Amino acid sequence: MQKGTKYALLFGAVPFITLVLALPFINRVEPFILGLPFVLFWIILWVALTPLALFGAYQCEKKFNQPESEDEE
Amino acid sequence: MNLALIIIFSVIFLSAVLGVFAGRGKKMDLEMWTVGGRRFGVILIWLLMAGEVYTTFAFLGASGWAYSKGAPAFYILIYCTLAYTVSFFILPVIWRLGKKHNLHTQPDFFIHRYDSRYLGVFVAVVGVIFTIPYLQLQLKGLGSIVTEASNRTIGFNTAVVIAFLLTVAFVLTSGIRGSAWVSVIKDILMLLAVGVVGLGVPHIYFGSIGGMFRALLAQHPNHLTFPGATTNMDTLWVMSTVLLTGAGFYMWPSIFATAFSAKSAETIKRNAIIMPLYQLPVLLVLLVGFTALLVIPGLKDGDFAFLSLVNKTYPPWFMGIVGAAGAVTAMVPASILVLFASTLIAKNVYQTGFNPRASEQSVVRLSRFMVIVIMAASLVFAIWLPNALVDLLLIGYNGVSQFCPGVVLGLFWRRINAQAVFSGMIAGLSLVLLLHRHDPFWGMNLGFVALVVNFMVTVFISWLRPAPKRAARFDSESAQL
């Protein structure tokens, strides 16, 4: 496995940690944040942040991996 | 003719015209029809994928779950996000294989990777079996939405038949390009409807979103934490369900094949990065369901929460917009589902299984013919046998998810072979079929349990058999991700 892919997978693990493993710990309504009960706020927050994590993964692959010639048209 | 009626019909016809024109001047060979000539950029791929994610379930199901089940509905926000994350890693590899070896469908991938025609036919048949109930569900959802939105001036059957004819028209003329272009209208209308209603109703009735949630908690203190209003959808169920559906999402034959339409692996990656943002409007749909529970409690069918609340709150012309959005929201996924179900039958059952020498033209001809047959069959089910396929639909996700070990391990593990994949799938599918009345199983989603067993069987049998001397079909680029 290339180095960039390893780093990218770490970024890819972010939604699995925050939106799956963390669920038993955030299953409550208080405190309300931005009008949303806590569990819903937490989920929305990490759904919205996942693109950032994936962008990080994308940058890692770009920086550390060999470019794939066939990707370009 | 009332205003709502005029709006709904204008939009449906306009969509079909756009869909038909999308394929003008393109030679509809298999490549163009199924994968749009592999030339879709970020925007078209996004429209296509968004077209498949936002089915009628987004309108009726998500608000219905919020209404009748509460917090377990949050799984919808999570699983797509997980699916896009998975897609970031696997779809570019699938795309490269598709480009290099001219693959058009999911069974094509299995045939190529495992060098097994039988596995391909098996995957095609299973894929079609689980796709047809989904197609029927779209037609049924469409009929309900249009009937309700037009204040019952359009009958269920009329709505379904008209949408059926128009959808078949643009699938036949434009293939996958038609679906992508109709998605433009669908997305604009859907975002408009969901935005106005989702932000509107909590403010109209409770002054603010927070106010609505406070009122909800006062009446239903347990509604907003797992397991909500259910007894068997606790945190463990949510966790196992999002893992299962996140893994299963790209295993739908129609969604899997979307990867092949992209013009580059880069396009797919960029698309995967932005897709989770498109999940955020589902929050608005959930807000509508929660508001409906307070404003119009006691609905027999939670799936009508969205439409009933709109009906109560907004003028009829707006109901027309919602109805139109709902109708197109059913037509786009229906077009993609029928396109791939028919291609699977023509290419991977007929050509692969029975007549490997069939020419490409005859495969395309048969695909087109099957579009009409499959749509007609779904129509019959939707109108006369609405409950015949309910069980199949409920286990649809559990079923197609069983392709996951064959796809993912196949991409990254040289040693896996056809027998192992087949045994794993049989094990997983058997569990899903035999135990589906005991779902959730030990508090977990049954499909998830079956998927774990499937993975174990696949890995175990791969180890048991001697390592392939030369894995000719395992491309070196796969291993590098």
Question: What can you tell me about this protein's structure?
Answer:
With 73 residues, chain A is mainly alpha-helical. Chain A has one domain (3-64). Chain A is 63% helix and 0% strand. Chain A contains two helices and no strands. Chain A has helices at residues 3-21, 38-64. The mean pLDDT of chain A is 88. Chain B is built from 23 helices and no strands. Chain B is globular, with a radius of gyration of 22 Å. The N and C termini of chain B lie far apart (57 Å). The mean pLDDT of chain B is 88. At the A-B interface, helix 1 and helix 2 of A face helix 5, helix 10, helix 11 and helix 13 of B.
Distance between the termini of chain B: 57 Å
Q: Could you spell the SSE succession of chain B in H and E letters?
A: HHHHHHHHHHHHHHHHHHHHHHH
Number of helices of chain B: 23
Mean pLDDT of chain B: 88
Could you describe the largest sheet of chain B, including whether it forms a barrel? none
The CATH class name of chain B reads Mainly Alpha
Number-wise, the strands of chain B total 0
Main interface by residue count: A-B, 43 and 47 residues
Strand coverage percent of chain A: under 5%
Keywords:
heterodimer; A: 73 residues; mainly alpha; B: 481 residues; Sodium/glucose cotransporter; 75% helix; globular
Brief characterization of the structure:
Chain A has 73 residues and is mostly helical.
Record the SSE blueprint.
The complex is a heterodimer of chains A (73) and B (481).
Chain A: H1 3-21, H2 38-64
Helix pairs in contact in A: 1-2
Chain B: H1 3-22, H2 30-35, H3 42-53, H4 56-68, H5 75-101, H6 106-114, H7 117-149, H8 156-174, H9 176-206, H10 209-219, H11 235-248, H12 253-261, H13 265-274, H14 281-295, H15 305-313, H16 316-354, H17 360-384, H18 390-394, H19 396-400, H20 404-412, H21 418-434, H22 446-464, H23 476-479
